[in-house]
Amino acid sequence: MKGIYTIVLLVLSNTFMTFAWYGHLKFKDLKWFENLGLISIVMISWGIALFEYFFQVPANRIGFREYGGPFSLVELKVLQEVITLVIFMVFTFAFFKTETIRLNHLIGFGFLVLAVYFIFKK
């Protein structure tokens, strides 16, 4: 069960992270954000990223083997990276309709899935 909690928390964490890192690129489309300066954008993104930590830190503590979780540190990191890419792809397709995914992107993602396989292989 701790593994599922860890993954759910990592998904939530990475959703906030993706919005903090890339969501501001769409602010120009929102009337009340269009004239904000870079410092304001950084502060808004930092505020969003704060919520990432509310999920990321518990995910790592619950999931880490030394705290009774099912994952090693390396396994946690690889899970986080793959979840980040999945969330990023969903975000990209939902909010950045002009971005395209090419064959080399898919091949790279395939290698990341293979990384998960090899990291978790006993």
From TrEMBL:
Claim: Membrane is one of the keywords in the record: yes
Pfam families: DMT_6 (PF04342)
Keywords in alphabetical order: Membrane, Transmembrane, Transmembrane helix
Transmembrane segment boundaries: 7-24, 36-55, 76-96, 102-120
Organism superkingdom: Bacteria
Transmembrane listed as a keyword: yes
Protein name in the entry: DMT family protein
